[in-house]
Design brief:
This protein is mostly helical. The protein has one domain. 83% of the residues lie in helices and 0% in strands. Helix 1 runs antiparallel to helix 2 and helix 1 crosses helix 4.
Length: 101
C-alpha cells in the first residue's frame, strides 16, 4: 500500500501539535492545583481550551474538543490529583492551603 509522504508528514505534524497541547494542559492543571494563584497556569489552560474548541483543532483531528477537555479534567480528578495529594510534602501543602484563602 502506497502512503503519500506529504500526507504522512501532515498527519505526524497534526498529531505532534495535539500531543503538545494535551501535555501543556496536563502540566498547567497540575501547576494550578499546586499553586492556585498561578497566572501562567491559568493562561495556559485558557489557551489550550480555546484551541481544543477551535475550528483549527477540528481540521487536525476528528475528536470533539469539548469531549477531550472533559476527559482530561476527569483524568486529573480521578488519577493525577490523587497522586499529587499522596506525594505532596507538608511544607508545600501548607503553602497551598494558604494560597487558597
Amino acid at each position: 500500500m502506497y502512503v503519500d509522504p506529504k500526507l504522512y508528514a501532515a498527519e505526524e505534524l497534526a498529531n505532534a501539535i495535539i500531543i503538545k497541547a494535551v501535555e501543556d494542559y496536563r502540566k498547567a492543571m497540575k501547576d494550578l492545583w499546586l499553586c492556585p494563584r498561578s497566572v501562567n497556569a491559568r493562561h495556559t489552560i485558557i489557551e489550550c481550551e480555546s484551541f481544543f474548541r477551535s475550528p483549527y483543532f477540528n481540521t487536525l483531528i476528528s475528536v470533539d474538543g469539548v469531549w477531550l477537555i472533559y476527559k482530561l479534567k476527569q483524568e486529573f480528578e480521578t488519577k493525577t490529583r490523587k497522586e499529587l495529594e499522596k506525594c505532596i510534602s507538608p511544607m508545600i501543602k501548607n503553602c497551598r492551603d494558604l494560597s487558597v484563602r
